[in-house]
Amino acid sequence: MKSRYIKRRKKFHYIIISVTIIVCLLGTVFTSLAILNSSKDLFVANAENELKTKINDVENSINSDLNSDFNNVEGLLNEDIDKADTYYEVTDNSREYIASTDNVLTVYCYDISQTILQKRDYVRLDVLKNLLTDDEYNEICKYLKTATDNDGDYYLLVFDNYFSTEKYGCVPSRLEVVKSNNDIAWAVQDKKIKQYDFDLSKSGYVSKDELSEGPLQSDGKHRQIIDKDFFFGKNKPEFSVESVEKIFEDNDINSEIYDKPVTVNNGFLKYYVIFGDVFSVSQSHMSRDFASPISSDVVDDDGNVVYETIIYGNYNFNAVKEINLLDDCLWKFITIFAVAFTIMAVVITVEIFSWKDFKRRTAQEETRLEMTNAIAHNLKTPLFVIGGFAENLKNEEDTEKKLHNIEIIQQQTEEMDILIHRMLDLSRFDSPALKLNCEVFDFKPFIEKILENYYVHTEHEIIFIYNSKAKIKADPAMLKTVLENLIDNAEKYSDYGSDITINVSDDVLSISNQCSSFDRENLSKLWQPYFRAAKGDNKSGSGIGLSIVKSALEMHGFKYKAEFENGIITFKFRFTSLD
Fold first, then answer.
1. Torsion of CA 323, 324, 328, 333, to 10 degrees
2. Are 107 and 224 within one domain?
3. DSSP notation for 363-425
4. 486-530, pLDDT tens digit by residue?
5. CA–CA separation, 314 vs 459, rounded Å?
6. pLDDT tens for residues 363-395?
7. Are 157 and 42 contained in the same domain?
C-alpha cells in the first residue's frame, strides 16, 4: 500500500515537471514567433522609410542642378549609411552608371576660392592607395593606429589641396598627418607631422583641363579628414552591382518595380527590402539665334532672337537593404528563454525539494515506526521479567529466593531506566532548542576521569595513549556522553579477553576493540538508531548509543567515521583544538 502511494506521488511530481517544461517551451516558441513577426514588420517599415528618404534627397539634389557632375550625388549616396547592409544606385534612362554606394567616403570640402565654402564631395579609397606607395600607406596606418596619449593628443589624416574631378570625385594633391587635440579649435592650430605630395599629371585621375585650373585649397579653419576606418578598408561594402543583380535574378524580380518595396527571404531571419523609383527632371534654358527677328519672335536687348528650350533627364534609382532580425531580437530571445528556463528551474527545484521532503518525511515515519517497534521490544523484555519475578516474589516464602527475585527486578528496572534516559538523550539531540555550551579544556585529564569508572569493573584491559598537547573546544557534558557511549559499546562488543585501545594523536581520537562477530556489510548502518550489528550476541543494550554519538558529533561539527580491518573495529573523530 505504501509502495503504491509513493509511486503515485512520484508520478504526480513527474507530471507537474513535464507540464511545466511543455508549457514554457510552447510559450517561448509562440512568443518568439510573435516577436519575429512584429520586428520584421517594424524593420521593413523603417527600411522603406529610409529608402524613400534617400530617394527624395537624391531627386532634390539632381533637380537642383541638371548640369551637375554628380559628385554631390555620389557623396550623398554614401553619406550616413551602413554599407554592410544597404546598396543604392543611380543610373540614367539608358542604364548608364551615374552614382552608387561604392567604397568611397563622403567629405565636405571647404574651399577658399569659392563663394560657397561647404561642398559635398567624395574620396575613393582605391585612388588614395594608388597615389601612395606601400611604405607610405603602412606609415600612415601606423600613425592612425596610435592611441591617444596622456595629453589627449591623437593623429589625423587630412588634405588641404585637392582637385574636384568629374570621374573620380575629390582627388587630393597632398595628404598630411597632423597631431590634434579636442581642445584645438581650428585646423591651422594642428601640428603637421608628415606631408605626402602627389604628381597628379602622371596618375590619370585628373584631366589636363582640370589640372590647368589648378588645385583647390581648404579655408584653413576646417579639417578635411580622411576617416581612419575608411583608410584601413573597414568600410568596404558587402554589396556590389553584380551581387544586387543576382538578388534580382534569383528572386525573379523586375528591377524596375516602382510601386512599392518588395520583401524577399534571405534565410530564416534575413530579408531583402528592394525598392526602386524612376523620375524625370527638366530645366528651361534660353538659346540665342542671330538670325533676323520677325514680329512673333522674342528679342533680347542686343536684338538677337531668343528661344526657350526644355532639357529633360530621366533617372533610375535602385535600392536594396538587408535586414537581420537576429541582430535586434537576440537579446529579446535570450530574455524570453531566460525567463522560461528560470520558471522551469524554479518549478523543477521546488518539485525536487518537495519530493526530497516527502521522502524525508516518509523515511522519518519509517524510522519512527522502527523506533516504536524497537522501544516496544526493548521495554517488553524487562517488563516481562519484572512481572514474572514479581509474581514469584508474591508466592515465595524463602527469604533467600525473595532477595534474589528483588535483585533481578532491581537489575531490570535499572536497565529500563538506562534505556529511557538514552531515548531521552536521543530525542533531546533532535530538538532545535538544544544549544552547545562549549569550553576550552585539557582533554587528557578529562578522559582519565571518565576511565576511572571503567577500570574497576571491566573485564577488558583499557589502554590509553595520549600524544597531543592541544586543548579541546567542546561541550563537556555532551562530550562525556559521547565518550561513555563509545567506551560502553567497545566494552560490550569486544571479544573475550581482548584489549580496548583509546588513542589521542594530534586532533584525532580513536577507540578500537576486537570484534570477530562483526560483519563489514553493516559498517554503514552502525549509526542508525536501534541497529545492533553483532551476530548471535546475548548482550543487553538499547541500540541507540552510536546514534547519540553521531548526533552529538554533528552538533559540534566534528568529522567522524567507523573502520573495520583485521577483525578490529575503530571509531574515530577529529575534534576542534586550540594549540
1. 150
2. yes
3. HHHHHHHHHHHHHHHHHHHHHHHHHHHHHHHHH---HHHHHHHHHHHHHHHHHHHHHHHHHHH
4. 988 888 888 888 899 999 988 899 999 998 888 877 787 787 766
5. 122
6. 767 766 665 665 566 666 667 667 776 777 677
7. yes
